[in-house]
Amino acid sequence: MKELADGTPITVSWDTKRNTSRAAVVRRELAIDTEDDIRTNLSTQGVTEVKHISRMSDDKKTKFNTGVVILTFSQPSPPEKLKIGYRVCRTEKYYPRPTQCYRCYEYQHISKFCKKEERCRTCGEKAHLESDECSKEIKCINCDDNHISTSKACPIFRQEQQIIKIKTDKNISYTAARKQLINNNEKPSYAKVTGDVQTIVENARKQWEKELEEKMSFISEKMKVISERMEALNEKEANIKNWYNYLKDKEKNLKITEEKMQKDIEEMKTHCDKLTNELQKKDELIEKLTKNIEPQTQKTITTKDKHGKKIKCDKPIESSPDRETREGTPRRKSNRINNKNNNKQRKTDSSDMETEELNDDN
Length: 362
Prior knowledge:
By secondary structure, this protein is α+β, with helices and mostly antiparallel strands. The protein has helices spanning 35-41, 155-170, 174-185, 190-195, 197-292, 331-361, and strands at residues 21-26, 47-56, 63-73, 81-84, 87-90, 92-93, 297-304, 310-317. Strands 2-3-1-6 form a 4-stranded antiparallel beta sheet, with helices on one face. α2 (155-170) packs across α3 (174-185). The longest helix has 96 residues, at 197-292.
């Protein structure tokens, strides 16, 4: 649709005041770059305008950038973060200074469009220009107080600051923000206050009852939770007591068994000592007996087999008794007796062998 029914043309344009927003970014690196370079680099993030905040030097001859940059975005509210190079910077809301004319020192317009007479910022009077050298009484043009017209302590300046803050926060016009501030600061009449007392009291009572019910329900829930926890703690305490008694009984039983074991060990020790003594005595007796007994000696004897051939065989000879077993017999005599016995045995053995051979021949 380009025109109305009567033929008047229709043009659609972008509202640059309500559909835009401003934010401040503080980075020292940006003080070196120009405004055009910053705008071209940040245009992909919705930046349409860039403005440096500059200050005068101490000698008041040159200006220098402070590193604070005011960015204008093509959206109703500015973004919270902004990527500049390799870093992510936080944006802050920008509240501009109230517009003040430096010709008449009143607000809401600038000196370029001012049609009033030029006045002194110190005394507020007309006709002299060098306000810094004014020696008259200090007086504000806006509030008639004893401070200069550009002072930040002026109540009119603070009021303008509040209007601008409401305007930027709610994205409304200057006149709407001014009306809202006046309505907020307006004092209600006595009739209005007295008429609304009952409704205020009733609303306060209802709100108080609601809060009281919520708090009571919250307290009852907490009491239930506490009672459940107390029951659980009591059960745990009872279990701990049972375990304590059980461990005490176990400790007593262990002490009794330990005493019994110690007694058994002592008895075993005494029994082992007795056995070792008996074994020592037996070993001593065995040693004595082995000393008294001598080993049997072997003697070779020549005999004939059934074919008449001579054969050598070993025959044990009883060892001579010890001196203790001789019972006083002299040594030579015992040797003679042993030799006679041996000869007799030899004769009997030879006769036995001959009889066996004869039997075999028959």
